[in-house]
Amino acid sequence: MRSSVLFAVTLAQATAFAPPSSERVSTALRFFGAKKAAGAKSSPLAEEAVGIYNAKFAPRGGEKKKLFFESWGMPESYSNREVSEKSIFTREDAQLRATFNTIAALYGEEEALAMVKILPQALAFNKDYMAPSLDGFSDAFGLEESKEMVMRNPGLLG
């Protein structure tokens, strides 16, 4: 009898100090790439976010100009090789929309657009790392605090 009372008191104390439960549950399956249900819809604010990204990073002059110092000290064979015309910031609009939709699903549409306005290059981050990143922050700080922290500093998304 005494041991069962002691067990009940110990159990009550153990749950009293447990962190509050959150809506998101961090699982190994989600972290290691479990597939989500297909058919995710695009956010109506995705086009505005893609426009913000493209306004900052889209190539403006068509062809990439060669800088005056790129040939200094280089052998002739180096200057004859082909150089990619694409910028390192070039992304397909579909990829940018998918990343925005991932951010919107995790943080909300208005919040996602606010983050893109703060840091447009957040749309170039790998969207597969965003949910596990939020789960990791949630384990340490709690879900709501983690969301607020990432919304203030979108560089933490990826």
Low-confidence stretches: 14-23
Q: What value does the Rg take, in angstroms? A: 24 Å
Total beta-strand segments: 0
Strand percentage, roughly? under 5%
Q: Provide the helix percentage.
A: 40-55%
**Which class best fits the helix and strand makeup?**
mainly alpha
Report the biggest beta sheet as strand number plus sense, adding barrel if it closes: none
Number of helices: 8
Please give the alpha-carbon distance between the first and last residues: 53 Å
- The helix-strand sequence is HHHHHHHH
Given the C-alpha coordinates, what overall shape results?
elongated
Mean pLDDT: 77
Please write out the topology.
Blueprint: H1 2-16, H2 28-31, H3 46-57, H4 76-79, H5 93-107, H6 109-118, H7 130-141, H8 143-152
Which descriptors apply to this entry?
158 residues; mainly alpha
Question: Overview of this structure, please?
Answer:
With 158 residues, the protein is an all-alpha fold. It is 52% helix and 0% strand. The relative contact order is 0.15.
Please summarize what this structure is:
With 158 residues, the protein is mainly α. It contains eight helices and no strands.
